Amino acid sequence: MVLSKASSQSDDSIHSTFASRYVRDSLPRFKVPENSIPKEAAYQIINDELMLDGNPRLNLASFVTTWMEPECDKLIMASINKNYVDMDEYPVTTELQNRCVNMIAHLFNAPLGDGEAAVGVGTVGSSEAIMLAGLAFKRKWQNKMKALGKPCDKPNIVTGANVQVCWEKFARYFEVELKEVKLRDGYYVMDPEKAVEMVDENTICVAAILGSTLNGEFEDVKTLNDLLVKKNQETGWDTPIHVDAASGGFIAPFLYPELEWDFRLPLVKSINVSGHKYGLVYAGIGWVIWRNKEDLPEELIFHINYLGADQPTFTLNFSKGSSQVIAQYYQLIRLGYEGYKNIMENCQGNAMVLKAGLEKTGRFNIVSKDNGVPLVAFSLKDNSHHTEFEVSDMLRRFGWIVPAYTMPPDAQHVTVLRVVIREDFSRTLAERLVMDIQKVLHDLDTLPARVTEKMAKLEEHARNGVVVKKSAIEVQREITTAWMKFVADKKKTNGVC
Is 181 helix (H, G, I), strand (E, B) or coil? Predict the structure, then answer.
């Protein structure tokens, strides 16, 4: 841009952001700068750095919503300055939260009487929701043990080894022993029989996952409930169930309405769900619903009045924005049952397209199930030369973010890639991803065996009649030479037009 006016010493008169000294000179990275800069320069500097982030819609690692309708975006921006916790100042926002709690409770078949309000709360995500549910279980168990005159200092919780890390956080932060049911080959969720075997008098609850993070599979909550009912009758205990429906809570009611996993089962006392996953809201909203008031100890609820009227609160944080609550209400009334069902069916259909495309290559084993969260988890049939981690890394050349990870114990020898199918992942994108995966496989096949394997084996060779091992630097040079040749060959075939 041509400047029509000479700049002053402070560059106050410069209107071209990229011609200003604020872009030429770097700002201190970890200290507050001494002087102010123009708002345009601050915006441009940050915007330029953010360009190096990945494309959220091509981030196939995340379950979190990355697209909403423009009308909802407007509502979010209009309410971004409202503090969710200030119920007296923003009573309508509070009312919308209560409506969401009741809608979700009915969706989960909570046993509510006519005119009875559901018991639940909005959170910043399922992690906070799980912490709150876990605290309720722990306090109820402690109260029961104290009444019986028994020790209450060693609570435990039974889960599968496939649980999300927030369960480990809960156990560590709130001093609860985490008893994990190990996985095994071909069975990557919690075995209900083994889970019930691990239950003892100090178990505050058994946590079942409706939609495993690893492969999207729903755990068998119905069988777990039936086995636990029998054990409770035999022992006189009353061990309950919590369902972590972070991913599956907004899927099962629409795709599998006959599946019994929710409050239709008598031992299910609380359920969490992520509104920012298949609830179709941007990151920052989760929900936890209790079966009835008796399942949430009153002593965990705080009452404050310094913001106005008496306000009950049960959260780990205090202030937070109202935007996500309003966005959740928008989606619930905008889409309704019909809309959510159509979207979930579409996601499932696109998952099947991706699965079929991967199977057609003949190179992958499909680890995920057809029923469950719409995702595709898959592993290489032959990873002796190249690994899933290398496939994941090379897909980034095309902009795709596809995670590779190992399964938890005792299936840690299994490595998988996972693609989460969200609302904004179209069939065209699914077909394009398969094409790019095939390109990656072709490129990997032309490369020498992976560097790590060569470094580990340090192939032996004869030197002056004596068998010795190559040094690390020799192996590295060999690999570097092979890579340079590969790149040079690619350049010869890639013309510029």
Answer: strand
Helix (H) or strand (E) holding 380: strand 375-380
Cα 418 to its chain centre, rounded Å, is: 12
Burial code of 319-332, b = ≥16 C-beta within 10 A, e = fewer? ebbbbbbbbbbbbb
The Cα-based distances of 202 to 101, 167, 274, 314, 369 in angstroms read: 31, 17, 29, 25, 34
User: Is the separation of the CB atoms in 194 and 181 below 8 Å?
Assistant: yes
The residues that bridge with 207 in the sheet, in sequence order, are 242
Q: How far apart are CA 172 and CA 193, in angstroms?
A: 25
Tokens (6 digits) for 203: 């178990």
Contacts of 37 (CB under 8 A, 6+ apart): 22, 27
Q: What is the pLDDT of residues 193-202, one digit of tens each?
A: 999 999 999 9
**CB within 8 A of 248, min separation 6: which ones?**
210, 211, 218, 261, 278, 372, 373
At 199, phi and psi to the nearest 5?
-70, 135
- Interatomic CA distance for residues 398 and 496, integer angstroms: 18
362 exposure class (CB count in 10 Å sphere: 0-12, 13-18, 19+): exposed
Sign of CA dihedral 42, 48, 49, 51: positive
> Two tokens at 300?
């965990």
Please state whether the peptide bond connecting residue 410 to the residue before it is cis, i.e. omega within 30 degrees of 0.
Answer: yes
Distance separating alpha carbons of residues 288 and 286, to the nearest angstrom: 7
Phi, psi of 420 (to 5 degrees): -90, 130
Helix ranges, 70-161 (H): 70-78, 91-107, 126-147
Long-range own/partner contacts, residues 225-234 (CB < 8 A, 24 or more apart): 225/265, 225/266, 225/267, 225/268, 227/192, 227/193, 227/196, 228/196, 228/199, 228/267, 229/266, 229/267, 231/196, 231/199, 232/267
Query: Which are the contacts of 91, defined by CB distance < 8 A and separation ≥ 6?
Result: none
- Please give the C-alpha separations between residue 31 and each of 20, 35, 39, 310, in angstroms, as whole numbers: 21, 12, 19, 42
The closest of 174, 173, 204, 211 to 190, measured between CA atoms, is 211
Whether 485 shows a pLDDT value over 70: the answer reads: no
Query: Taking the C-alpha atoms of 285, 286, 292 and 295 in order, what is their torsion angle to the nearest 10 degrees?
Result: -120
Give pLDDT tens digits for 94-112. Answer: 899 999 999 999 999 999 9
Residue 87's pLDDT is what?
A: 74
pTM value is 0.86
Q: How far apart are CA 206 and CA 131, in angstroms?
A: 14
182 DSSP assignment: P
Contact 120, 284 (CB under 8 A): no
Q: Which two tokens stand for residue 350?
A: 């696109």
